[in-house]
Write a sequence for this structure.
């Protein structure tokens, strides 16, 4: 009888854990879909701006269009590979792979696209049981789940600046509704 009770209790506890695990996997699936749509939309935005306007800034202290674009790549790499994945962060002073440097418009778009794909690949393999692991995020105590959300917000923030830059240059941004 004791064995039956233990087995019943074990099955009951396992059944409680299953919905949580499924929801976490759903979160990753939904997040990847959102990130893929964000990738497609950002590339359309980047393609819309003429290359001779890539250095445009809304104000002297603002990032340029191209700096916003490459900053998105840098942040994706740092949030996913370094914060979530534990890889040593790139050295901002010496690593030019994810910076404007002397890249053409086409090279920047290719770099951003590649970084999105690497981030999506990393996230598709992320262990959902680590969502509640905590880490230091620029002096703030955050869970890895929060890092996922912060990354999505960060991409949106810088892409929104780029959309304003398109408008300030008399260009119509691509329609967002198709990429939600």
């Amino acid at each position: 009888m004791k064995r039956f009770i233990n087995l019943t209790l074990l099955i009951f506890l396992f059944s409680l854990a299953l919905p949580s695990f499924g929801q976490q996997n759903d979160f990753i699936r939904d997040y990847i879909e959102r990130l893929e749509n964000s990738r497609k939309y950002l590339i359309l935005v980047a393609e819309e701006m003429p290359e001779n306007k890539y250095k445009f800034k809304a104000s002297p202290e603002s990032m340029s269009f191209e700096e916003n674009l490459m900053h998105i790549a840098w942040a994706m790499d740092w949030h996913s590979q370094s914060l979530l994945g534990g890889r040593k962060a790139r050295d901002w002073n010496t690593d030019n792979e994810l910076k404007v440097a002397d890249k053409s418009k086409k090279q920047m778009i290719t770099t951003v696209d590649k970084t999105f794909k690497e981030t999506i690949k990393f996230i598709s393999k992320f262990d959902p049981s680590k969502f509640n692991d905590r880490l230091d995020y620029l002096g703030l105590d955050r869970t890895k789940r929060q890092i996922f959300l912060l990354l999505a917000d960060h991409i949106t923030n810088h892409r929104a600046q780029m959309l304003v830059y398109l408008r300030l240059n008399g260009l119509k941004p691509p329609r967002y509704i198709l990429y939600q």
Summary: The chain has one domain: 23-179. The helical segments are 2-48, 65-84, 105-124, 144-168. The CA atoms of residues 2 and 61 lie 71 Å apart.
